[in-house]
Amino acid sequence: MAATTIYPSKNSSSHRSSIPRLNIDAAMSSQPAPAPAPAPPSPKPGSSHGSNTPKKPGDPKKETYRQLSHNEWAQFCRGIGVFKDDESEEVVRPISLWWPPKGFRDGLYQDVLVEKTKFTYFFHIVSTITWALMLIQIAMSAVLTALGSVATSSAVKEGTAITSIAAMNTCVGGILALLHNSGLPARYRSDRNEFYKLEEHLKSIVDTALVPADQDINEVLADCYTMFRDARQTVLNNIPATYTTAPRSDKRLAERASRMIDSKK
């Protein structure tokens, strides 16, 4: 069977030319551009959506402060007694090296300076006595060693001298043991530091006028007097052979509890 070849008809060119050609580029350019998609709504303040950055938690131990107004600052300074007089607003500073409370009016600041200065003198005096007795004891021990190693004919005189020096050495050792068992002079230094911290607290408020943000001026003054009372109570509690009563708040709770029990009966 012969292969058949199909040729296009004679009028195929004219038929093909009658079909309109599509211009795809022109058709795409003539169409309107699509509207952009609406952006997602932004999260409200404080919302957790739309933000992957975790918030840093605040430090609960970090305390915020506020600055006192001029009237509050003047009220605080008059309350602790650092003004020169009632009419002026001149702050008094320690001017005496030997007695710093000199020149201050009666008030909390003067009481703090008196207690701090008193325990400062006690600490230095007892510390000086302790070091002097220790040096004397070392010297007498050396003398006793020297007398014991020397052999002479006057044994009676040597025995008397050795006995006397040994008795003095024993007395010195007893005094040192008494001071050590009483916690001196370290206890006087700790007492001084209690009032020194309170003085620095008062000075910081007077110089900077910064107080905790959640306290008013009355609470600030009350806290200062409470700190002074706590410092004196700490000193009393650390004195040997001292009987200290319970805090006043515990007594009130006990009395209130006893009244409730009596009322139920």
Polypeptide structure, described:
There is one protein chain. By secondary structure, the protein is an all-alpha fold. It has a domain of 164 residues. Helix content is 58%, strand content 2%. It is built from 8 helices and 2 strands; from the N terminus they run ααβααααβαα. The protein has a two-stranded antiparallel sheet with strand order 1-2. Helix 3 packs parallel to helix 7, helix 4 runs antiparallel to helix 6 and helix 6 packs antiparallel against helix 7. The longest helix has 42 residues. The N terminus is likely disordered.
Number of strands: 2
Q: What's the helix count?
A: 8
Mean pLDDT across the residues is 77
List low-confidence stretches: 1-8, 12-20, 39-56
Q: What characterizes the major β-sheet?
A: 2 strands, antiparallel
Helix-strand string: HHEHHHHEHH
In whole angstroms, the N-to-C terminal distance is 133 Å
Q: How much strand content do the residues show?
A: under 5%
Sum up the overall morphology in one term.
elongated
Could you tell me the radius of gyration in angstroms?
46 Å
Structural class: mainly alpha
In the sheet with the most strands, the strands line up as: 1-2
Q: What are the defining features of this structure?
A:
265 residues, mainly alpha, 58% helix, elongated
List the helices and strands and how they pair.
Elements: H1 12-17, H2 24-30, E1 65-67, H3 70-80, H4 108-149, H5 155-181, H6 186-208, E2 210-212, H7 217-237, H8 248-264
Helix pairs in contact: 3-7, 4-5, 4-6, 6-7
